[in-house]
Amino acid sequence: MALASNSPVLPVKGLADLSNESRMIATPWSRMVRGIGLGQYPVDYDPATATRIRRAFDLLAVKVPASNSYTLFSRRLAEFVLKLVDPECEFGSAETQRDLDGVLAAVRSEGNPYWRLMAGCILMDAFAKLRLDRTLLVNERLDFPAEVLALVDRIEPDQIKDENAGRHGDYEKLSAFSAVFLALGQLGLKERLVTSDRHYVKESLNLLERVPAPFFRGRGGSMLFSVISLLGHDALIFDGERNYMREVLDHLDRADDLGSPPAFPQPMSAEFSKIYPLVTMLNAVAMSGRSEYLTYGRDRLAQMKELWAGISPVERTHMGLYYLVALHNLGRLEDQLPDKDAFVEGVVGMWEQVDPGANFFLNGIAYAYMIETAMLTGRMDLITERMLDRVVDSYPDLDRTDLDRVNRPYPFAYLVNMLGEIGQAQRLFSGRERYAGESAFAWVVDHLSPAATEEGSRLYMLDHALISQALRMRGAERAQTSLFEDFRFRSAAPAEISAALPR
Known about the structure:
Helix content: 40-55%
Strand content: under 5%
Number of helices: 25
Number of strands: 0
């Protein structure tokens, strides 16, 4: 049975309803993995949701010690947000300062400079979305944005310990620049990034060449370009001594010669490692308004079609939403995908062939992408009770390998986030036969490793999902900050794209 008949009112009815923030950061990867763009699709306060968020952190506290500073920060920030958005909660200035001090202390106790920076950025972004007075963070005794920005210098290359060790270079630092630029922009402090003492934007762009693998340079560079365009500094990308967009596209075109393909937890097609950075770069082109880059080097939309034809059906569940949003932002959806409904049906309909418990990555996160694709395109009729039951009950299956077990929070965080957005989060917090009467959330947390040491930063994705749900309840009227509200997509219609760059 489809959910359309009994689902609550959804935050969007289609791509035309997307805010600029959601057009720039539409997919779960940046939100759950990198913690940027949390709290999208704001709704009014709901006591039941607040109770579930607090219950979730209570469960985590049993397994995760308070010495885990990032989860401690996440719990304190979520509680801070929940008090502020609850219309029945009397939360005066003294209480606000006291709780904020607790959040700041948790941020500062995080020893890893990357994660400390990310926590600081999430806090600043939350301040902007809650419309709190920034003087609580910038005053005579405190300059928290400067404190966070200074952390960039402490992030060293090749610190990510995963299957791509040695391919990242300064990828983590590049991601940190994107996050901190966005956070300072949200607070109205973007002028700090281009001072005479230090030009952080130019510095970040020069960092691109220190990310060796085309996959990571393209994916990381695309978000950096998007943020820089959002801040109004896009001329620095294109019109200076170097053209960084050209350089990244050229680097992507050399992927076969460079011989540095990314490794994935499960086998992926060669085309997948090329389509992912390309489609994110297409969205960066849309953010910049420089549609002529769609034909720089080659016809990039034709290249997308060619790569789309080469990836597997399950890989399409990951990439479909990226593709749709990029085309929408470029003003090219109708001419590139004239039968959008058939495209969406093909992507979402894959759930019947994809076993979500077969592995944590390729199959495990596919369901969140399929659900989000349906939601953002107004096709919730494609989401059925049987589909949701299948994914909610799938997490014990990830015990079959150590790799899947320790990475279980990855797909689970995606689902926590996604079911919250479509008003179905209660499915994860109610007792189920599959979990011997426990809830899926309680079961997943109970099956974390001792002190959650094996899961490492995968646990933080679950923290991000819970913060995002809390921040969403700031009220439907708080749709966008002024930074996003003032931005305009400037993509040309197909007939107007004539000034192609040299091929």
